[in-house]
Input
Amino acid sequence: MVKGANVGLSALSENVGAVVVGLGWSSATGEGDADVSVLLLDADGKVRSDADFCFYNNPFAGDGSVHLLGKTPTADGSEDRISFDLDAVPPEVDKVVVAASRYGGARFGELDDLRLTLADSTGDGLARFAVHDVEEVSALIFGELYRRAGEWKFRAVGQGYASGLAGLATDYGVDIDDDAETADAETAVAQAADGEAASARTAGPERAGAERTGTGQVGAAPEGSAPEGSGPDVEVPGGTSTAPSARVPAQSRDGHAVDRAATGPEPAEPGTAAAPADAPKPVRRPRTAKKKVTLPRTAKKSLADNDTWRTARLFPGSALKSDRERETRATSVVLSVMAQVPEFGRRLTAAFGAPAGRMETFTEVTLPHGESPRRPDGVIRVERAGKLWTALVETKTNGNALKPDQVQAYMDIAARRGYEAVITLSNDVALEGSPLVDVRIDRRRKHKVALWHLSWAEVVHQAQMLIRHEGVGDAAHAWLLQELLHYLQHENSGCHGFQNMGAAWVPVRRGIDEETLCQGDARALEVIENWERLVRQVCLRLGGELGQKVLPVQRARRGADPGARRTELADHLCEQGRLNAEIRIEGTPGVLGITADLRTGKLRTSIEVPAEGAGYPLARAKRLVRRLSDAPADLHIETLVDGRGTGPRGTLERLRPEPADILPKDGAQITGFRLSLFKGMGAGRGSAETGFIRSVDDAVDRFHAQVVAHVDAPAV
Output
């Protein structure tokens, strides 16, 4: 589509009751990013309330008809996706605006390949819009969905705002405080939070002002308060100073973090003066984010007499004996928690086109199919606005592979019965452009069925993100997710994710050692595919532990076919004997590289960090060594020199007393440093203690904890 064009959705597909919009971009450095937002507008072109503004801290809007799905890995990096249940959009909403904004003074002109994609509920692409000429804007409307004569249409907009998110939202009736403009002031207040909390309890009627009630929302100040933008008055000894309010986290009686802005003011302590009843109270705006419950990482002290006692579990795993028992138990456990914890069920099904509604799950289902009935492992049904979305579930545990004929039968049953999807769940990891199971699609059928795959590692990742970092709306739901996580990580559950490099692993290693592996060997391609699966699982596991976005970096020509890219990597493996991968961890200064050298049996983890700050080269080297004071002594440091790659190198143990040894002798300009750790590589193809998979996990964990975390920390 071109800018300004519009099209009716019904002309593109028969499955437009729910659609998925994707916003994508790329940057030369790989670090450019933006925040996605959606606004629901009435006939006057304004939001009905602040709740109609859907953004990163309010991912649901329109009674759940709009859901921000977050980032999804693609061939070019990642893509932000948004799910729209158009049948459930409130009738008062005439238009839905899809936008994105940058922060910290960044502009969209610094990004490349700005694009919007539109897909139907089956995943088929419907439209694509490339956005151009947005050099100086920091907020951008990509497109809009709107009603005309009872039909939903899409318009390609491409309109930019130099005033950023605040300007865009204000045009549509939303009051928003740009985080980038107030970050410095909030940091200053956080440092004085203890003194402010004490003075707030005794401030009396003189204290008035705006109270922050949610990310991006500031309440209006009552009469007599400080001017807009200056924040509330904070009483301090010797006078009154002006600063924005800070939300100070407290601890509830059950040990969970509680936001005082959501639970109300703290009661006055004995001996302090309470505010008079007629004191003016801050005007609160509607909250755009609900209070969330997360579980502490450290377990509470046990009341057991000794360590041999085992805590009673909701989902015990010790009694499982056969693969059939493991599959039945795992299916029932996951589906039951999905139905009881809405946030969890929604996260697992939203990307498959399921609406946000009442979910019910079933096991031990029997469905007719020819002469013999079929028994899928489970069924998921979601009801929304009188419509039903249904998916069949096929589960495998341990190393059991999905059976093509079994999945094909479920696809046929789903097509005949009008089901929307078949979901497979196993320890394998799906790759882009490489389906786990090849199925035949009858093009003559009017109803289309989508085939989706989930890895057990993805299920674990989503549970960790909710209970450790993002939170859920109920303490009981958090406990259910904790029990689910304990079961999936139990050694007997069979749900441990990707754990085998495949039958080609040993022949390929032997061929590299003997220099008999030739380019074009299909076994090398199989190793490359399994290596990519392992890297994706490392990203899921590390992201769940850190609560940050961790994505694989795919270095390929734009538009290149994933299969062609893997074939090229397989040829490099045959020629060089090395497996290479890169992962990007949110909040770190560079890309974490992983190299497995099959010739030497060594694993290398590395990161390139820029030479920070101004000053003499020796000052930069000393600053780096100080930051790495707790790093391992065998850490290798290489100097990156402008125009000729690497310069001097040495171990941290040798450089600690003499940081000047890392400087180029000819005075060449230093652009950065490469930090590397080396580790022995496991030989086995499995995930045992001495296996290759375990050694990769350990190497990444060690490098992040002992090196990356220290580099990212601010210098003392």
